[in-house]
Design a protein that fits this description.
13% helix; mainly beta; Immunoglobulin-like
């Protein structure tokens, strides 16, 4: 190190230190007669991810309604599904399904931008008539409010409906599902 500038000496020391730190895991696995090295801080080697991912909550509809899914400080209840003819717009005169639901927030969590997606029993996405929806999916705290959507079934109709609810600011995987809500004939 003689004849090196101070910056060169510092660089050489940093390189040597990084090399030793990178070699420590390898040295632990070899029997060199060295005493046991202390454990480095960090998660246990056999642990999965340190932060568990949020999981979806799923409820299945059974019997006669209403049918409810609860989770993440939010409650969604389908009260009734009925047949209706599209009143105007692109779905005027088409057979549609009116879904009447109650929603309630029970925690201060962020429930802005709540979206509902509707699927039929074949897993097909149903269109929602933007001109015929009523109510809100973002109710005030502890205030049960009504929300209605007009779902447009695809060819062949639907026997059951499934709902996916998701907040705009919820992390991926944090969804509410209400499945197998019967459609009256």
């Amino acid at each position: 190190m003689k004849g090196m500038t101070p910056l060169g000496r510092t660089t050489a020391v940093v390189i040597a230190l990084v090399t030793v730190l990178l070699a420590l895991p390898w040295l632990r696995g070899t029997n060199l007669g060295l005493p046991d090295l202390p454990s480095l801080p960090g998660p246990p080697q056999d642990s999965a991810t340190p932060d568990p991912q949020p999981t979806a909550i799923t409820a299945r509809a059974h019997g006669r309604g209403p049918w409810t899914v609860r989770g993440y400080g939010y409650e969604f209840t389908v009260v009734r599904v009925s047949h209706e003819i599209g009143p105007f717009g692109p779905n005027e005169g088409r057979r549609c399904l009116r879904v009447v639901a109650r929603v309630e927030r029970v925690t201060e969590d962020d429930h802005r931008g709540m979206k509902v997606t509707v699927f039929d029993d074949r897993g097909r996405l149903l269109g929602l008539d933007p001109f015929s929806n009523r109510g809100t999916f973002e109710p005030p705290m502890h205030r049960r409010t009504e929300a209605q959507v007009l779902a447009v079934p695809q060819e062949g109709g639907a026997r059951t409906l499934s709902f996916n609810l998701r907040g705009a600011f919820w992390p991926d995987g944090k969804d509410l599902f209400l499945e197998d809500v019967p459609v009256p004939r």
